[in-house]
Amino acid sequence: MPKIKTSKSAAKRFKKTASGKLKRYKAYRSHILTKKTTKRKRNLRKSAIVNPSDARRIQSAIPY
């Protein structure tokens, strides 16, 4: 059987936690930060867990 190729773009965006869930970083943190409040930018720094409805799709892109 042929091996499944890893989607490199997904591999760079998502990491697996110890419990097997997928960790992601939040959007809207890259540019135009002057108009965003300090509180909003601070909350965007934190990582988040991928929604279970999306996790299965992403899991197939990252077969490790």
Describe, in short, the structure shown.
With 64 residues, the protein is of the alpha+beta class. The protein has 3 helices and 3 strands.
Structural commentary:
Helices cover 38% and strands 14% of the residues. A 3-stranded antiparallel β-sheet has the order 1-2-3. It has 3 helices and 3 strands; from the N terminus they run αββαβα. It has helices at 8-13, 38-45, 52-61; strands at residues 15-16, 22-25, 47-49. The longest helix has 10 residues, at 52-61. Strand 1 and strand 2 form a beta hairpin. The two termini are 17 Å apart. The mean pLDDT is 93.
**Fraction in helix:** 25-40%
Order of helices and strands: HEEHEH
User: How many DSSP helices?
Assistant: 3
Shape: elongated
Which spans have pLDDT < 50 for at least 5 consecutive residues? none
Largest sheet, strands/sense/barrel: 3 strands, antiparallel
Structural class call reads alpha+beta
Strand content: 5-15%
Strand order of the largest sheet: 1-2-3
Terminal CA distance reads: 17 Å
**What Rg do the Cα atoms give?**
15 Å
Total DSSP E strands: 3
Question: Keyphrases for this structure?
Answer:
single chain, 64 residues, alpha+beta, 3-stranded antiparallel beta sheet, 3 helices, 3 strands, 38% helix
Question: Which secondary structure elements does this structure contain, and how are they paired or packed?
Answer:
Layout: H1 8-13, E1 15-16, E2 22-25, H2 38-45, E3 47-49, H3 52-61
Antiparallel strand pairs: 1-2, 2-3
